[in-house]
UniProtKB/TrEMBL annotation:
It comes from the Bacteria. The complex is composed of two ATP-binding proteins (UgpC), two transmembrane proteins (UgpA and UgpE) and a solute-binding protein (UgpB). The keyword Transport applies. Belongs to the binding-protein-dependent transport system permease family. One of its GO terms (biological process) is transmembrane transport. This is sn-glycerol-3-phosphate transport system permease protein UgpA. The chain crosses the membrane at residues 12-32, 71-96, 108-128, 173-193, 205-227, 266-287. It comes from Enterovirga rhinocerotis. Keywords: Cell inner membrane, Cell membrane, Membrane, Transmembrane, Transmembrane helix, Transport. Residues 71-283 form the ABC transmembrane type-1 domain. It is found in: Cell inner membrane; Cell membrane.
Length: 293
């Protein structure tokens, strides 16, 4: 028999929802509306005077060649971070799901990095990859690779991708491990009895049953790479060298906060919001078709 929750007061459900609705209105819809309004304004650096200029900020933005370079860098960076963090997290989750001694301790250690702030993660990787002091950088130099992210844009982008992906691996690991533990062991055992080897069992049984979790994490990781990596980039490279690691979210900050172009920065934030919403919609429209529930 189906059980349904009943409320003695008809206004109680709305009262329970009110705090969340209020938070959403104040911290999402209100800033978004302000950014849209500001993108049509030309303001001075102090915000004391403003003029309505229609779409001039957008026109100037799309005429700027450096904006397209930043757009390309953002897509490369986001795709690399999402792929690397998801693949490594899945590998670690499969290994941690095995019946081994001390598995609980391993799982706990793998979760810890998620508690590290993005800026702290950036500092940790700077110490490892610094061309003068970093242990990893010295090892690369001993192998004949002249590692220098201060001057080489490819090296700088690589280290930012590594730091950002490392920060997100623990989050992905939690969900992948939960998804693996939810798969009935009887299904895996039946495939093993039928002669399917471990690799075939993973591709034909485990991975399809993990598709809902993978799809959710794909959406979350794309949003993370577009927005939440600002602290890591600001700590490690400040968008350099020569804007090689400047993503859209960092360009919003550098042009608005440092450059004083408040209207142009607002226009960039609106475009960034549209891109993320569009990517999420595309994923739900096309990628979700391959998800097996």
């Amino acid at each position: 028999m189906e059980k349904r929750a009943t409320f003695s007061n008809r206004y109680l459900p709305y009262a329970l929802l009110a705090p969340q609705i209020l938070v959403t209105l104040i911290f999402f819809y209100w800033p978004a509306a302000q950014a849209i309004r500001q993108s049509f304004m030309l303001e001075d650096a102090f915000g004391l005077s403003s003029d309505f200029v229609w779409f001039e900020n957008y026109v100037a933005l799309f005429k700027d060649p450096s904006y397209y370079q930043t757009l390309w860098t953002t897509f490369v960076f986001s795709g690399s971070v999402a792929f690397l963090s998801l693949s490594v997290a899945l590998l670690l989750a499969v290994m941690a799901d095995a019946e081994i001694r001390g598995a609980t301790a391993y799982r706990t250690f793998l979760i810890w990095p998620y508690a590290v702030a993005p800026a702290v993660a950036g500092v940790l990787w700077i110490f490892m990859l610094d061309p003068s002091l970093g242990m990893v950088a010295r090892g690369l130099k001993s192998l004949g690779l002249d590692w220098n992210p201060r001057l080489n844009g490819t090296h700088a982008l690589t280290q930012v991708v590594l730091a950002s992906a490392w920060k997100q691996i623990s989050y992905n690991f939690l969900f992948f491990l939960a998804g693996l533990q939810a798969i009935p062991r009887s299904v895996i055992e039946a495939a093993a009895i039928d002669g399917a080897r471990a690799w075939r069992r993973f591709w034909t049984i485990t991975l399809p049953l993990l598709s809902p979790t993978t799809f959710f994490l794909l959406v979350v990781n794309i949003v993370y790479a577009f927005f939440d990596t600002f602290g890591t980039i600001d700590t490690m490279t400040q968008g350099g060298p020569a804007k090689a690691t400047e993503t859209l979210v960092y360009k919003v900050y550098s042009d608005g906060r440092l450059g004083g172009d408040l209207g142009g920065s607002a226009a960039q934030s609106v475009i960034l919001m549209i891109i993320v919403i569009g990517l999420t919609a595309v994923q739900f429209r096309f990628v979700e078709r391959r998800v097996t529930y």
